[in-house]
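The instructor's notes for this session suggest beginning with a concrete chain rather than abstract definitions. Hand out the sequence below and ask the class to guess, before any prediction is shown, which regions might be ordered.
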Amino acid sequence: MANDPAPEISTETATDPASHPLVVFTPSGKRGRFPVGTPVLTAARQLGVDLDSVCGGRGICSKCQITPSYGEFSKHGVTVADDALTEWNKVEQRYKDKRGLIDGRRLGCQAQVQGDVVIDVPPESQVHRQVVRKRAEARDITMNPSTRLYYVEVEEPDMHKPTGDMERLIEALDAQWNLKGVKTDLHILSVLQPALRKGGWKVTVAVHLGDENHPPKIMHIWPGFYEGSIYGLAVDLGSTTIAAHLCDLKTGEVVASSGIMNPQIRFGEDLMSRVSYSMMNKGGDQEMTRAVREGMNALFTQIAAEAEIDKALIVDAVFVCNPVMHHLFLGIDPFELGQAPFALATSNSLALRAMELDLNIHPAARVYLLPCIAGHVGADAAAVALSEAPDKSEDLVLVVDVGTNAEILLGNKEKVLACSSPTGPAFEGAQISSGQRAAPGAIERVEINPETKEPRFRVIGSDIWSDEDGFAAAVAITGICGSGIIEAIAEMRMAGLLDASGLIGSAEQTGTTRCIQDGRTNAYLLWDGSVEGGPTITVTNPDIRAIQMAKAALYSGARLLMDKFGIDTVDRVVLAGAFGAHISAKHAMVLGMIPDCPLDKVTSAGNAAGTGARIALLNTKARSEIEATVQQIEKIETAVEPRFQEHFVNASAIPNSAEPFPILNSIVTLPEANFNTGGGDGNEEGGRRRRRRRG
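After discussion, reveal the predicted structure:
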């Protein structure tokens, strides 16, 4: 879809693209300007937005359903008028009369752009899922699952021994497998007798082995010898994305991995905005609970289809999440987490059943939630601790799980400290003028020549750099994702386009016409695709401010833990999380995201929270291990620490106004630049306007 030919562009389009309406798609965040009269489906295809169509835009299949939004959207910088799209037409009415159409929905092939508009693409209209970069990392795990298969031969009924079929099955499990005290649920009784007789009194049963509080239970039964497998889910329920790994409980193999955007994003991109939504809207917490459970069920259907298995074979699941997501998933109002002392309803691990959470897997499937560490340090941090084991490290390791809310661990065999830091969604591409989440077409790598100030970059979905042959034909550029904006800003700092305070210089100050005036400040032109009808991608001063705030929060949390440890340096740094896995260590340090450290000591752990969930799924002993470990971790609450603000102010500079960063300075020489001329416009010559550069 990203390589579909662009619609014919008029002369006016080529000379004045800024005059056309702005179309913003959610949840992808992709945006672009299109001539009046452009069908929404055409705009979506041009931007690489995942909007389905089977009939090719003929108004027959209805796969391209979209939901336009109206009103003021400060986040997107647009106000959407009631006439932003063409009026409801006969094709749409005919479809609604025959098959029904949800109120507010339009057909993307029929609705045409008339003005600035924000358009949501519902999950059922997306032909391909968005790339959610959380994957199951390779890891050796000792197999000890909670649910196992047992083949048994059951004594046939006898007139002289009037015991029930279930009692004889339980006796067989005891005699042949030493499984004592096995219980069952009603749904097994309803299928037990046909299974025993069809199998000739030989059956295979899936038994959940229980724990100190729960007896073993029969989960499923098959006639004869069942040669298939049973499955479990390791789920990382994040603020922005939900990622799941489907594991074979016999072999431990990850048979499928998939992810979706967390549907709660529409209630707020960060955790506190969701808590606020709950506070300000009666029943808002239950609304968010329903949304996340429905999204999760859609994900489970998707991953089962990908693995070509019956969802009823998923008999176990482990969940990790931050405290707010933990409460909302469980149906608990997160009100108390929005105010000091940030009390959790429970911090202990939980063992539940899928039906209690309205999950559409095996009705008796077991669900285990790892313990939370503190009010703002959740089960996802506990999962990272299980995966990366800082408590077993000989050297002092800083583990940073980078996301909308960063979880930070610092420790060794002596002790482990933990905190969370509210980085916000900027690292995910939100709050960035040309930002989007990681998906094909997003710029993810950036280099800037320090002499010519010219950029080169790479986008997701292609290995070709922008200055290499074949680039233009290989990709459709749609925006810039988190790793791309991190590298762009760090490269700008190294190339002398950006000063330590975060100000972009003017063309005169920097010596390049790629620095263009943007209101009272300047912006750096990374890509101008307007001539071809594509987006113009710039790095603006507001973009830099958003990243400065996010990275300052991240660094301040880490530095606060270092203060508590009484040290100024760490031996190594581990970057975890979907986003952390793709951060360049050098660029992260130039930006000042992480403490000064040898680059070869900065490593990626990938989705460590998801790996921790997988360990807990496949090895029940790991569950009791992390429950004990969490009790030993010392929790630091950044909100009440007076030095946090001091560190935050220092860390707002690039890389830092107080920390010397000697290791970084031995590798990189950062130009001494100061673009603050006192006039507030960032220009040396009275803020005179410059013509926008193309190309």
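Then share the key points. The radius of gyration is 28 Å. The first strand starts at residue 22 and ends at 26.
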